[in-house]
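Illustration 12: Hemophore-related protein.
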Amino acid sequence: MKSASRSLGHTVAVVLATGGVFLGTAGIAGADPIPGCTAGDVTAVMTGVSASMTAYLFTHPDVNDFMSSLQGLSKSDAKKRTQDYLAANPQVRDELSAIRQPGVDLRNRCNIPLKAEIASVI
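Figure caption equivalent — predicted structure in token form:
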């Protein structure tokens, strides 16, 4: 089960990375956060996106298999293959875009850089 969880986590990360939705918090120390842009807000939105992506992948085994096939590839190879797959499957592209839209909206509303990361915090 741990392997399946790790695979799913990697798959979701690849999907989100390909779409450019790596969120973190950025700002000036001591500045009041933009309403709705706290670390808790970011976590809540991304939890929803992750849950929706999980449900989608488990109910679309062909997409789940494709995303799983990206494991072990370089970022550039995974990105290229994903772009090709989504171009050949516009309905999947649109469905995945709709799933990640709340993260995109949050990033835009909260001025979160495209590649913001908080990896060293945890």
